[in-house]
Design a protein that fits this description.
The chain is built from 15 helices and five strands. By secondary structure, the chain is mainly α. It has a three-stranded antiparallel beta sheet with strand order 3-4-5. A hairpin with a 5-residue loop joins strand 1 (11-12) and strand 2 (18-19). It is globular, with a radius of gyration of 27 Å.
């Protein structure tokens, strides 16, 4: 897509210049922006500012902590190239040059729309100056032309890049990105409000990590949104599908994906969270998924000849040469 601090309002003066927010303009997480003022941006990011922590069943801070973890997107306070696309990222994988995208809602049974603002719109929604975004992009272009991809990657790993954001600023970017993931998770799932907290978090993680690419997971989205229909079809076949069986079907569609086979560690946790009983035994739920994603290698019994050959090759070369230099002494049998 892989959350904290208040979202900042920002205002435009009569001249159109961005002005920094004052202390009185800080918004608490529970404050609503359902009625936006003229000082706020007229774009998709506007809708994200009305988010309330009570809108979801899980902790947004917990989701942010997962996405900020170095085992996932990581946490880099300077612009760095995406390993695959080489486009600029910052913080926990925030894309710096994405354009606003038209993402139509194709599910006629889901009235909730998608919101895909541009990077600049999300940047401003997080309370950051547009001028700083352009400065960071210009510096990235300069560094990308001066360094090879390998050199850039080495600087990221060794923390040799000069920070371009503070911890607080990067956290604000992560927060607004996580809110966008939650918002779009509702657009992907008709029954989002009926999901458990763990299931809502798992789906939000998938949206954060994959963005619009999640639309390609047709089998997963079909199973996710066909809870009642699947039970009706199952009843026609002579048996009644339970809720646990439905979620096992949802999990299996992800287990069979290329994403799960490529990112097994991350995927095992996310897939396990779709188990409705995940909170009771999270470790056991993850182990069941890991057993399918990463089954133990079969142990094959070695033949005596193979064992002898392996034992021979483990002998030091000096020992073998010494024995080869002396004839074997035959012992008489008594």
């Amino acid at each position: 897509m892989h959350l904290l601090v208040p979202v900042l309002l920002f205002a435009a003066s009569a001249s159109g210049q961005w002005t920094a927010p004052t202390a009185g303009e800080l918004l608490l997480p529970e404050q609503s922006l359902a009625q936006p003022s003229a000082s706020q941006p007229e774009d998709g990011a506007q809708q994200l500012l009305s988010f309330r922590d009570s809108d979801i069943k899980f902790s947004l801070r917990s989701l942010m902590d997962i996405l900020r973890d170095h085992q996932h997107e990581g946490w880099v306070l300077a612009a760095y190239p995406d390993p695959n696309t080489h486009r600029p990222l910052i913080g926990a994988g925030f894309s710096l040059d994405v354009q606003q995208t038209d993402h139509p809602q194709l599910d006629l049974l889901n009235p909730h729309p998608f919101v895909e603002p541009s990077s600049a719109q999300l940047w401003q929604a997080a309370g950051l100056s547009p001028n700083r975004l352009q400065q960071i992009l210009d510096q990235f272009d300069h560094d990308a032309s001066a360094w090879t991809t390998k050199q850039y990657r080495r600087k990221v790993i060794r923390h040799k890049l000069t920070p371009q954001l503070t911890e607080d600023e990067a956290t604000r970017l992560l927060r607004i990105s996580a809110i966008q993931a939650v918002y779009n998770a509702r657009a992907y799932c008709r029954c989002f409000d009926r999901l458990t907290g763990s299931q809502q978090m798992a789906l939000s993680q998938l949206v954060f990590q994959m963005g619009t690419n999640l639309q390609q997971f047709v089998d997963f989205l079909g199973a996710l949104n066909d809870e009642d229909g699947a039970r009706e079809l199952a009843q026609l076949d002579g048996f009644m599908e339970t809720g646990a069986q439905h979620w096992q079907t949802v999990q299996s569609t992800l287990i069979d994906s290329q994403w799960a086979r490529t990112y097994t560690i991350r995927a095992s946790t996310v897939i396990a969270m779709f188990d409705p009983d995940y909170n009771q035994q999270p470790g056991a739920a993850e182990q069941r998924v890991e057993a399918v994603l990463r089954p133990p290698a079969p142990v094959q019994a070695k033949s005596p000849a193979t064992l002898r050959m392996a034992s021979y090759h483990k002998r030091p070369a000096r020992t073998r040469s010494k024995r080869a230099a002396h004839p074997t002494v035959k012992r008489k049998l008594t």
